[in-house]
Design brief:
Layout (H helix, E strand, L loop, with lengths): L4 E4 L5 H9 L6 E4 L2 H9 L5 E8 L3 E2 L1 H9 L3 E9 L3 E4 L10 E4 L1 H6 L11 E4 L3 H11 L4 E5 L1 H7 L2 E4 L9 E8 L12 E8 L5 H11 L3 E9 L7 E8 L3 H14 L1 E9 L5
Parallel strand pairs: 1-2, 1-3, 7-8, 7-9
Antiparallel strand pairs: 3-4, 3-11, 5-11, 6-9, 6-10, 12-14, 12-15, 13-14
Helix pairs in contact: 5-6, 7-8
Amino acid sequence: MNKPIAIQGIKGSFHHEVAQKYFDVNTDVIECLSFDDTVDSLLNGKTDTAVMALENSIAGSIIPNYALIDDNDLKIIGEYYLDVQHNLLASQGQSIEDIKEVHSHPMALLQCKEFFKNFPQIKLVEAKDTAGVAKQISEQNLKGIAAIASKNAADLYGVTILASCIQTIKHNETRFVIVERQNNQIEIKALNKASLKFELDHKRGSLATMLNVISDCKLNLTKIQSLPKIDTPWKYAFFIDVTFDAYKDYEKAIVIMQLMAENFKVLGEYKNARI
């Protein structure tokens, strides 16, 4: 019997939606209050697979999650791009004029801040989970408090949608990665994307040289994110995503990059979900 999938948040969250779409609509999940808890469920064997958001087209990278994947030697075995549509949810019978506070995840609040400029009376309050607030509103029949969450959360917990698609930029995608403790078993011919990490000294041309290798080996750089090394001032770790048409080109590139960089690591090899 397959173990459940770990997600950050509860049923009705966007992580839950990704688990349903990537695996199966009836996939069983482990609900985790934080990304640290999500990773812990992998490390202690409660699950073999977890879903983690990594970046958003509006708000940018979720930087701590890069470190969680790297520090715990997890492997990215897949990805999923979800079209995130935020909705304003409240208990039955409420109108937007009744709302005094909106509680939601900080990322959701950030993505919807323009909408609330039209409602200066509403106070925005950070919460741990989008769907969690919707569930709380439903169970406690809260008045004057609304949530920002998915349509799935509204359907699951029986709350009313006061306003739909309230995110500032209507095309709002979040990239989620599927992580496990071990590499997946996808055939090499099916692999066309990889996530890599390496460290470079803070000196002229070091990053440019690495980027030239990527270009010369016919790889396409689709993402680059730098994180400072806390214990070594002015030294940086770089997290990059590359796509490729031929695995042999990718193999050639990583052989060269391993020689040029420190602490080079392959975080995962998988199928490009954008194709």
